[in-house]
Amino acid sequence: MRKIFTRYVLSLVLAVWSSVCFADIDENFNSLEINRVAVLEGWSFSYCYGAYREGDNTNHVLHFSTGSNAETPAVGKACNARLTFYYAKSTMNNSAFWVSLGKSGAKFEGDKTFVNYSIETKDKTFQLASLNIYGALETTRVSFNSNSTNAFVIDDLKLTTSTPITISETGTTSSFTAQLADVTLERSLTAGVWSTMCLPVDVTTEMMKTAMGVTEVKMCTFTSCANNAMTFTKVDEVAAGTPFLVKVNANVTNPTFLLVDVKNTAASEVTDGDVSMVGCYGQTTLTAGDGQQAVFLTADGALKKPSASSSTMKGLRAYFRVPSNFAGARIMIADEEATGIDLTLQDEAPADGAVYNLAGQRLTQPTAPGFYVSNGKKIIIK
């Protein structure tokens, strides 16, 4: 059984709606006495009852039957929010219900104002539901309605409002408070170019498309390094704090991620042998140990050392620690091209006009037809 809230705390939290929690799951709910819940301040009920153990009126579930309805208090402010609750049937037959937002203007995912649930489990096991609510107003209420003759219960209901936060590439923040938030990133991405990134939220390619307003997103994480070639693997999701490469098919400026869980997770580094990719949330001074050098990925796809006058890199990015003798470095991304090599990177600060083959070997003057690299860019000799 989850932690039991006292009557006083329950009433107080419900009035605030910042992270509302009502009712604690009791898996033996079917043996509970059925009584109307009087402590749920601001709620309205119609043929809907609270259940609690005899002699303990602080452990609640909501019990629905034919024609039941329960409506929460108003959200109380304009915001995005997340509704979570557990649900189960209390009869041996299948049950069904729906959750709605009425005509408040708020919407669930997919521009819906209601979501249907059908309970077909053979036992009375609780299932978790999670619904994002967009554009809630002060007057928005959430309704639970029974459309079945068979009874069901809901429990551990929470409505958490999202906090708008901005994370700037010029900031110095290295840690964040865990919270539900609408996160705006103050940084840009150039179309068709691999860029480094490190975020305090878990992301998927679909989330990135929505937040960045693009139709294509590719993400890769560092997996290994051999013969001065850093190998990256394409992924569909990246955990908070993990540095990665990203490429979009349109220019992006200041994207916003709605209703995401900001994690209290430090930016990490991924290492293979003596090569590391180091993630950073805020502006960072590039550092390296003895026998190593710190290099970063530029907007034009070159891997360069910081200048003598400045070794500071903007935040929401990552840099690399490589050996001092790491010459002709290149990035390999499987299936990006027929060759498997997307980008060959130089480790020299100035553009010196040197030409390399795809194995990273410096050439005096290439003559054979094929792909080569000069000043961090691919060239073709036919």
Helix content: under 10%
Shape: elongated
Rg, please?
A: 27 Å
N→C terminal distance: 72 Å
The proportion of strand residues reads over 45%
Could you report the average pLDDT, rounded to the nearest whole number? 77
Total discrete domains: 2
Low-confidence stretches: 1-27, 29-39, 52-59, 337-352
- Helical run tally: 2
Structural class: mainly beta
List the helices and strands and how they pair.
Layout (H helix, E strand, L loop, with lengths): L6 H10 L2 E4 L10 E3 L8 E9 L8 E11 L7 E11 L5 E6 L6 E2 L5 E6 L7 E10 L6 E4 L5 E10 L1 E6 L10 E8 L1 E2 L5 E3 L5 E2 H8 L4 E10 L2 E7 L1 E2 L5 E5 L3 E2 L2 E7 L6 E4 L2 E6 L3 E2 L6 E6 L5 E2 L7 E2 L3 E7 L6 E4 L7 E4 L10 E2 L5 E2 L6 E5 L2 E5 L1
Parallel strand pairs: 12-13, 18-30
Antiparallel strand pairs: 1-11, 2-3, 3-4, 4-10, 4-11, 5-9, 5-11, 6-8, 6-10, 7-9, 13-22, 14-21, 15-20, 16-19, 17-18, 17-20, 23-24, 24-29, 25-28, 26-27, 26-29, 30-31, 32-33, 32-34, 34-35
Descriptive report:
With 382 residues, this protein is mostly beta strands. It folds into 2 domains: 7-161, Sandwich (Jelly Rolls), CATH 2.60.120; 165-350, no CATH class. Helix content is 5%, strand content 47%. It has helices at residues 7-16, 205-212, and strands at residues 19-22, 33-35, 44-52, 61-71, 79-89, 95-100, 107-108, 114-119, 127-136, 143-146, 152-161, 163-168, 179-186, 188-189, 195-197, 203-204, 217-226, 229-235, 237-238, 244-248, 252-253, 256-262, 269-272, 275-280, 284-285, 292-297, 303-304, 312-313, 317-323, 330-333, 341-344, 355-356, 362-363, 370-374, 377-381. The strands form 8 sheets. Strands 1, 2, 3, 4, 5, 6, 7, 8, 9, 10 and 11 form an 11-stranded antiparallel β-sheet that branches. Strands 15-20-17-18-30-31 form a 6-stranded mixed β-sheet, covered by helices on one side. The protein has a 5-stranded antiparallel β-sheet with strand order 23-24-29-26-27, with no helix packed on it. A hairpin with a 2-residue loop joins strand 23 (269-272) and strand 24. The longest helix is centred in the N-terminal third of the chain and has 10 residues, at 7-16. The chain is elongated. The relative contact order is 0.11.
